[in-house]
Amino acid sequence: MIKDKSIYIQNIYYMLSYAYQCLQQKQYEQIKTEPFDNIQDLFAAILAIGIAGQVKQGLHREYVDKEETLSSLRGKIDMSSSIKLKLQRKAQLACQFDELSENIELNRILKTTSMLLIRSNEVKRENKLKLKKVLIYFGHVDEIEPSFIRWDQLRYHRNNQSYRMLMNICFLVLDGLLLTTEKGDQKLATFLDNQKMSRLFEKFVLEYYRKHYPELRARPSQISWEVDDDIREFLPAMQTDIMLTYGEKTLIIDTKYYGQTMQTIAQFDSHTLRSNNLYQIYTYVKNKDRHHTGNVGGLLLYAKTDEDITLNHDYRMGGNKISVRALDLNRSFGEIATQLDEIVTRWIFEN
């Protein structure tokens, strides 16, 4: 898939900037023009800027439970432990109290991710130095074992909302790049796995249309099954990646990111579209266009691979247009944007 690594990685930054809008803020502008040879260096540059901004705001602190043996009372007494101290003839009390601390999970994740990037041979010296500079303010923050992090349990509110994008970048590093060798050592992979890239690709396309085409209603949406007797019990949910609506017209987009786009039929030495992808988009379109108006279309949008196959096909199926396209992520971002614009022009505004 990767012909020019620097262009591809730069486009990952653009996808991230759409997926996480705060990356479009002024302090990140220098990253747009900076060449990156690998994704680890890109993530290090983003985190160095983001953490520096967070340090200026102040690291988020929360009250944490602490237990200490003290010469004077603080908080409440742990009676059983204090009695043991008394029997040992120690003039001390076992105290339990709350303390406002920076040593919380959000900051631990930032420090752990930064340390992994600093240890990586793929990160440029200048970005390592920037990370080391901001980590001076994390002296009282511990590192955390990545496997202990429960990403789905992180909670954001008004006081820690600025951490959300930083946590998403840390997630991509710790959950998308971190590998454990046979010896138990930890190292970072060169690229994100297909699952993480697939989710990023989907979110990028959605946010691109939301930003540049506010007149469209761009959203992920559920489609109800068109059944004759109104009984839908046990039917699986039909959750679209992206649905673009403009007046009476609707375009359902299903984004796909694979190492290999086509499926191979060995006995016939031929290639076809992945059948489950086509069945899925066909089902979405037909159930959405329950009145058979033909105003609902479907698009399978693949991230282009290095396969010597051009995906640029339109099919008419029972009155509905279902198309297949490949978005080439090895081109300049301007060309990628043009491809996305052409989709809206052809499927929404021209038809």
From TrEMBL:
GO-annotated biological processes: DNA restriction-modification system
Keyword annotations from UniProtKB, A to Z: Endonuclease, Hydrolase, Nuclease
GO molecular function terms listed in the Swiss-Prot or TrEMBL record: endonuclease activity
Keyword Lyase part of the UniProt annotation: no
Alphabetical list of InterPro entries matching this protein: McrC, McrC_bac
Listed name of the protein: 5-methylcytosine-specific restriction endonuclease system specificity protein McrC
